[in-house]
Amino acid sequence: MEICQTIDSFRAVLAEARRTGRTIGLVPTMGNLHAGHASLIDRAAADGHFVAVTIFVNPTQFGPGEDFARYPRTPTEDLELCRGHGAAAVFMPTVDEMYGEKGVTTVSVASLTGGLCGRSRPGHFDGVCTVVAKLFNIAGPEAAYFGQKDAQQCAVIARMIADLNFPIRMVICPTVREADGLALSSRNRYLSPAERQQAPQLYAALKLAASMVPQGTTDANRLAAAIADHLARLAPLGKIEYVEIVNPHSLSPVQQVDRPVLAALAVRFDSARLIDNMRVEPEPSGG
Predict the structure, then answer these.
(1) pLDDT tier for residue 285 given thresholds of 50, 70 and 90
(2) Residues facing residue 239 across a β-bridge
(3) Is 124 a catalytic residue?
(4) N or C: the chain end with fewer CB closer than 10 Å?
(5) Over the stretch 103-140, which tens digit does the pLDDT of each residue have?
(6) Could you tell me if 139 and 193 lie in one domain?
(7) pLDDT by residue (tens digit) across 168-189?
(8) Rounded to the nearest 5 degrees, what angle is found at the Cα of 139, between the Cα atoms of 135 and 54?
């Protein structure tokens, strides 16, 4: 496994792989890797790619007062995980290597970033899109792998790929969860024991809403209210930031579940802000 810290060395490794007929599968991460990231590496390897993982805590997607300084950084463990799951190259640049002299260019996908997480994290998705576009341009992958847990990020990057004509296939992999349903996240380690005990109720609330649809509840406001009520009762340590039922592609709110929708939520505990989502399918029409 090649470990690269400069753009030039990373490009050289990928160029050599292409010379041997390999295609590149890119797995962008911020490190502190867990089984969710491992599933992305596994999928890229199973698809037959030369798997390139990037590990970079991107400062431009953190707002004032957010956790950039304390975001967990575990490079030794990360490299062990990458090696164990078949990554062929790992790119671990510094901030100076990625941004150098402060740039003046940003990438913004305006129509998809104002709601959901974007409402409380202004500028976050501009930072995400800018760094992902840079990584796409550096690596030139045939495919890039992302997790469904970050559903808004997936929708935003998919739109960026389409709008900017990146010749990249985006692969969205299922959310990986703990045994009790909590979606894996690097920020879960921030949770206090009491918060960790309540955190699985995010997933339980989404499952509750999904179960109501086949029973005849298709009004999106009622589904959102059921999620909020469940969280208020069973996860009182968390403050609900949003609960929304939206179109999974445009992220615009829907009124009725008459086609597949995305139920999405964010809950802020004292020690961590958690997000989760679930695709909710309407009952198939008879006939």
Answers:
(1) low
(2) 268
(3) no
(4) C
(5) 789 999 998 999 999 999 999 999 999 999 999 999 99
(6) no
(7) 999 999 999 999 999 999 999 9
(8) 55
Among residues 37, 49, 124, 230, which one is catalytic? Answer: 37
Residue 287 pLDDT class (50, 70, 90 cuts): very low
Amino acid (1-letter code) at residue 86: G
Kindly state the helix (H) or strand (E) to which residue 128 belongs, with its residue range.
helix 124-139
Confirm whether 63 is domain-assigned.
yes
- Compute the distance between CA of residue 266 and CA of residue 254 in angstroms, rounded to an integer: 18
Residues 165 and 224 both lie in one domain: no
Report which of 175, 129, 155 is spatially closest to residue 28, judged by C-alpha positions.
129
With residue 247 as reference, give the H or E element that holds it: none
Same domain, 193 and 254: yes
What whole-number distance in Å separates Cα of residue 96 and Cα of residue 102?
A: 9
In a domain, 140, yes or no: yes
Q: Which of 173, 199, 226 is the last residue of a domain?
A: 173
Residues 6 or more apart from 210 whose CB is under 8 A from it? 263, 278, 280
Predicted confidence (pLDDT) per residue in 31-76, tens digit:
999 999 999 999 999 999 999 999 999 999 999 989 999 999 999 9
Q: In this structure, are 52 and 146 located in the same domain?
A: yes
Strand partners, 219: 256
Domain of 56? 2-173
The amino acid occupying position 144 is A
In a domain, 285, yes or no: no
CATH number of the domain encompassing residue 206:
3.30.1300.10
Domain count, the chain: 2
CA 148, CA 107: separation in Å to the nearest integer?
Answer: 22
Q: pTM of the prediction?
A: 0.95
Q: Is there a domain that residue 181 lies in?
A: no
Q: Indicate if 103 and 136 belong to the same structural domain.
A: yes
